Amino acid sequence: MKHKATKLWPVEIERKGPIAILTVHHETTKGYIDATGDSQLCRAIEEIAFDDSVRVALLRSGRPPFCLGIAVGESEPWRLRSIEALAQVSCPVIAVVDGAAVAEGLELALACDLRFASERTHFALPQIALGRFPRNGATQRLPRLVGRMRALDMLWTGRRVSAREALRWGLINGIYPRRTLSRQAKHYAHLLTQRAPIALGYAKEAVLQGLDTTLNQGMRLEEDLYVLLQTTTDWRSGVEAFRQKTVARFRGR
Amino acid sequence: MLRREAEKLSPPLMYEKRGHVAVVRFNRPEVHNAYNMAMRDSLYEALAAVRDDPEVRVAVLLGNGPSFCSGGDLTEFGTAAGPVAARAARWRRDVAGIIASLPKPLIAGVHGFALGGGLEFALLCDLCVVSDDAKLRFPETGLGTIPGVGGTQTMARLAGAARALEVLWSGRWITPREAVDWGLAVKVVPRAQLEKTTLRMATHLATLDPNLLVLSKRAVWEGLERALCSALWLEHKLAQRAGVAAAKEDRRQLEERAGV
User: Fold this and answer.
1) Which CATH number describes the domain made up of B5-207?
2) Which partner for B191 in A152, B131, B174, B251 could form a disulfide, CB atoms 3.0-4.6 Å apart?
3) Active site residues per annotation of B
4) Cβ–Cβ of A144/B87 closer than 8 Å?
5) Does domain A197-244 have CATH number 1.10.150?
6) CATH superfamily placement of domain A2-193
7) Counting one residue from A and one from B, how many pairs have CB atoms under 8 Å apart?
8) pTM for this one?
9) What's the complex ipTM?
10) Set of chain A residues whose Cβ sits within 8 Å of the Cβ of B97
11) What confidence tens digit (pLDDT) does each residue in A169-214 have?
12) DSSP conformation letters of B71-100
């Protein structure tokens, strides 16, 4: 299945079995995101969010940069609906970042669960240096990921952070040569499709919701989800396969 | 404690006191210390002993044989009378809860396999030392489940959401080097030195003022649960309490010397 949206800022959804690959073609806006692009991306994300057959989603750009954010001087930056839509996706969402992820572009990548990047990628938050205030999660998601000092350093200086540095900080999960980046990301996604989809979603819920509460409450949430999983057929076939030393085929039930 | 005869000869857990240090050892070496119900009950009791014994100031968690702990014993999976019973049993013997609320320092020394629940025990400890042969991973999503001993919480708090999810989802091996770089362990040592290093660390902590250990542990664990301004207030209160205790101790020693 393959379909393309309008010519202006087309967002393409490609399906490889249970993997959905969202590719943003932002050539006409020179790597920036505009209102049309935002609403198209939002629609594409909502489409996969409500499609149970999607087990893993990848978000990438057709060519570098990944995304440069909202063009300076276009208008006062708005809250991107596409970034809010990402919060609704319960399956793993992975940003495949080749080239710069800047300003709202980085905020978009931060709203994904994992980030794999190419060596030539860099990250920056130039908003404050340009007299704007980031409003798409950078002041919240970034310090939770890399600590407040690194976050403030990026926010105040607007400096470029290399992929190497980002990997050391935990801002990205992996770094690959640009030629193999896409393949590596798909390989990781494929690995996840072999595992129980409900468990993947619950692990995400336990981690993200758990970080927003006390350890004790987080552990209770984890336990409740853990027990709930024992009612699934996937759990039974997983344990059974382990005993028989075979590979379980999970169906998401 | 109910134990079969075989378990009396070879208990699933060993507990030993060396001065002020309690040493707890998983002891099912033939199955890489797979964690079963008998072990859970013994661990719960051992941890309660650590908590309640005033002589114990620091505890160490180790594994006998080739591994630290290979996680939940899968031969016992699905033996509970359904999820409701499983959930009730978990809270009746809340091992993760007793570790998380233990007031004294707990140090894990991890070698060989630390899988699933085994890794989760290590992550619940205050400090963890890993040997260079340690093999760590979360196999759960490949079994249709998620971690159930706090792994989704401790992993995310120590290493951040992204690193946590990457390994929870894929179930890939985490190298000892990564464990240190991510803050899951404090150091990597050669296999032959693991036990010695872990025990030396514990013995050193046991020479410190036990009251300060307890108060500082509480400040960090409880402080992380609060907004910063409230956590700083907590630190202030705990520091006052430490000061009062120290002053009392000074007076006691003065009086002792004066022969009062």
Assistant:
1) 3.90.226.10
2) B131
3) 120, 140
4) no
5) no
6) 2-enoyl-CoA Hydratase; Chain A, domain 1 (3.90.226.10)
7) 154
8) 0.92
9) 0.92
10) 216, 219
11) 999 999 999 999 999 999 999 999 999 999 999 999 999 999 999 9
12) -B-GGGTT-SSSHHHHHHHHHHT-HHHHHH
